[in-house]
Automatic annotation (TrEMBL):
It comes from Candidatus Onthenecus intestinigallinarum. One of its GO terms (molecular function) is DNA binding. Residues 57-114 form the Integrase SAM-like N-terminal domain. This is Arm DNA-binding domain-containing protein. Pfam families: Arm-DNA-bind_4, Phage_int_SAM_3. InterPro entries: AP2-like_int_N, DNA_brk_join_enz, Integrase-like_cat_sf, Integrase_recombinase_N, Integrase_SAM-like_N, Phage_Integrase. Residues 15-51 form the AP2-like integrase N-terminal domain.
Length: 222
């Protein structure tokens, strides 16, 4: 590692040399640091990344996560994840050390997301909040599984939002009548489905019915 002063711009240039995973010597550098301390801080982050030391910042770990995951996912899938990371995660966690991020900090971030309103006063949808939280948790899970992070703080903090509601499917009258015709030779099932369809009751309500609930003279059920 070395820091050089560039006289023309009065800034510092940091050069970091390392050996990659297959034994080849590599070099990376960055220009434009105003102070030697800033340049040295960048060098330390590079060292943490190449040694997988989780004393690195969240932003630096995201670089590792990207290198590990991007080529394994479809382009559109990664684009969605990358947008969430850049706009919802890095602004809050980017400068924090991976090993120091706590459940309390996750909760504070969750509250920021829950209280957010766009220019029209609309909040994020519960489904979107769930997606964003899942992405943050996925990054920490990756750190736990492959980089020896002790635990995922998202699990302690708990989730936010909710999964997409299952789409409800309905039979048209014509569809039900076709089904009922097939069921006529099974009286118990036939009459059960007749009650469900024509009375609009739920399965649990149907199963709770007793003979006393039926009034055949008035043709009612209660």
């Amino acid at each position: 590692m070395a820091v050089y002063k560039e006289e023309k711009t009065n800034t510092r240039r940091a050069v970091y040399r390392y050996t990659d995973w297959n034994g080849e010597r590599k070099q990376t550098q960055k220009r434009g640091f105003k102070t030697k301390r800033e340049a040295q801080a960048w060098e330390r982050e590079q060292l943490n990344k190449t040694s997988a030391d989780l004393d690195m910042t969240f932003k630096s770990f995201v670089d590792l996560y990207t290198a590990d995951m991007k080529t394994r996912l479809k382009e559109n899938t990664w684009a969605t994840k990358d947008h969430i990371i850049r706009t919802k995660l890095l602004p809050y966690f980017g400068r924090l050390k991976m090993c120091n991020i706590t459940a309390q900090q996750i909760i504070t971030w969750q509250n920021e997301m829950l209280n957010h309103k766009d220019e029209n006063g609309k909040p994020y949808s519960p489904v979107y909040l769930k997606t964003v939280h899942n992405q943050l948790s996925a990054i920490f899970n990756h750190a736990v599984r492959y980089y020896n992070l002790r635990e995922n703080p998202c699990k302690k903090a708990g989730s936010m939002g909710k999964k997409k509601n299952r789409e409800m499917m309905f039979w048209t009258k014509e569809q039900y009548l076709k089904f009922a015709e097939v069921m006529m030779d099974k009286p118990l099932s036939f009459y059960a489905f007749e009650m469900l369809y024509w009375c609009g009751i739920r399965e649990g309500e149907l199963l709770a019915l007793t003979p006393a609930d039926f009034d055949f003279e008035k043709r009612t059920v209660s």
